[in-house]
Amino acid sequence: MSALARVGSIWLVGCGNMGGAMLRGWLAQGLAPDKLTVIDPALPELPAGVRSLNALPDGEAGPEVLVLAVKPQLLGDVVAQFRRKSGSAPGLLLSVLAGVESGILKQAFNAGATVRAMPNLPAQIGKGVTVLCSEDADMDRRQIAEELMRVLGTVEWIADEALFHAVTALSGSGPGYVFRFIEAMADAGRALGLPEELASRLAVETVSGSALLASASDESPAELADRVASPGGTTREGLNRLDAADGIRPLIRQTLEAAARRSAELAAAARQS
Ligand SMILES: NC(=O)C1=CN([C@@H]2O[C@H](COP(=O)(O)OP(=O)(O)OC[C@H]3O[C@@H](n4cnc5c(N)ncnc54)[C@H](O)[C@@H]3O)[C@@H](O)[C@H]2O)C=CC1
Ligand SMILES: O=C(O)[C@@H]1CCC=N1
User: Which single residue of 39, 70, 96, 149 could bond 74 by disulfide (Cβ 3.0 to 4.6 Å)?
Assistant: First the structure.
């Protein structure tokens, strides 16, 4: 029996983009809906059997697993509610909040164990990647956290929580950059005369196929790029522009640095609140 199957109650606090993806993934994997309570003031439409609340329940014992998926700036509201209303600490706290460190979460919820997770949006189709980190979870709770996130795609554990800023900047925020890249490719194709919808389809399929190939191939992305670029051909000309001193590498580096900086700012704000 999986560790997750033994869990009796899971509360999901915040059911938007990421919380909603997690909920759908758990149910698709066969998690019993009657184990799940969703707490979200927006009262999103939920699959049958899942308990829906617009606030944490009054005087009810805390769940075995509490999953936090609200915006980091709302953590204070959730903590205040939890302290006011809930009878006991959760056995496991799993948080996907960007920037909020486990020390803060531990202090706030006094959970049996705390696991930080950084998933990403392709989780909505089971193709995400989630990074997990915990200082205090035993094997059983690590297993529960891993099973909860594995339905969303692949899972990686890291030992050093300080790396979460970099992880958030790369894989957490990364889909946003890739979507922007797709948009820019389509815009550039349109500027060269392609019809709008054709340019969009070509851009999406090119990025999707290339990512699948990079994932399936033994060759590095650099080697694969060389396979596309015939000597004296069109791709080399394009790559020369991307590889210029003011090309894609410094831009992407600055992009990740900006996101990592923001993650550190969110962490500092959570420490002060
Ligand atoms: N969207 C993404 O790609 C990723 C998001 N995250 C993290 O996931 C968390 C949620 O982000 P999204 O799902 O994008 O945000 P979202 O805005 O789509 O969802 C947040 C949900 O929280 C609900 N909410 C607001 N106040 C609440 C309260 N007091 N109690 C319970 N629920 C409340 C809102 O109604 C909303 O449905 C953030 O902390 C973010 O850092 C992490 C990785 C990727
Ligand atoms: O933009 C954000 O803050 C969240 C964390 C990573 C992706 N979305």
Answer: 70
